[in-house]
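Appendix B. Worked example

We walk through a single record from start to finish. Start with the input: the chain for J domain-containing protein, Neohortaea acidophila, length 353.
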Amino acid sequence: MPGGDFLSIAGWYFLPNIASGYLQQILYSIFIRAGDPKPQPGSPRYIRDRKRAHIFVILAYLLYTIYEADYQIRQTSDFYQALGVPHDVDEKALQSKFRRLTVQYHPDKATGPDKSQVEAVYVHLKLARDTLIDPAKRFAYDRFGFDSLQWRSCTTIRDFIFTGMQQTTGYYVASGSVLVLLGVLGYLQTGTFWRYLVMASLYVVEMHLMTRPTFPAVLTKVLNPLLSMTGWHPPLLPFQFLTLLRKISVTFFIALAQLGPLLLGAQAGQSGDGVSSQQLDRLDAVSKAADQEVSRMMGLEMSPYTTDPASMRELRSGLREWLVQNTIRNDPEVSRAVQGVLDRRRQGVEPAG
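Next comes the structure step. The output line below is what the pipeline stores for this chain.
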């Protein structure tokens, strides 16, 4: 996995939380007037606002990662763009275009400090011409990209298809194993069925594309005409289309794993006072543990009296007297009667003074 892709995926596990906190504070500073109290951490409104900010940040970061994946594809110019020819170019037009570019970039005509750069451009253009002019290599490049250039032992279309199927199957087996492992460890629980369904669908689509002699209809009849009409994006080759689908599926399901608890928590699992059933279960477990701890501590405190009957009787007598006195003192009727007696005594004493 390239370093940029690894950082982008790793960013899912800390950037949304950090950005949500900053976004919440910024929104409070904008929409809450100076001097008015802001919602305190832990309050219902603070939690609700934090959840909304978190959802917004996750969606925004999902769109950014899709844009980033597409930007990386556009930055890596393909052989057709380098030569300036369409995807359906024939051999005659390809050779003619290469000869015109040779006049401009041939190393023998380059001088000065830019000679090394011109030589590099010429080598790249020659590699592009040699790849696209060979039917087997062109077939493999369109479907597997630059990786196919490393398959030195492949000479026929059949060889390239067999090697490509091995590479693709290995990728999906490894990816599926990672998903299963993450599921066993308790991660990515949301949308498990759809995750495996999409992965299996992508695998079938790739197997179909690598064995078809033509480009898929979704590219030739829908996506590429739309991109050519808008002019903001060059047409996609099959391997670029598949690379984009892979990256979108990975980032989408990471986003879904983070959005799931937030969206489901807002609809289900919430009691009327805003406390989830999981929180109530944890509170019940804590209270039971506290009761057990209190019973244990009481047993330790009472242990010296269990072997001394006289001390136990004295303790029981003292507790009984304390309970009676405490009950009498706390009884409202007794309190009012005592207060009345005291008031009458004060009134009887005051005149004598």
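Two observations about the output. Confidence is low (pLDDT under 50) at residues 268-274. The longest helix spans residues 44-75.
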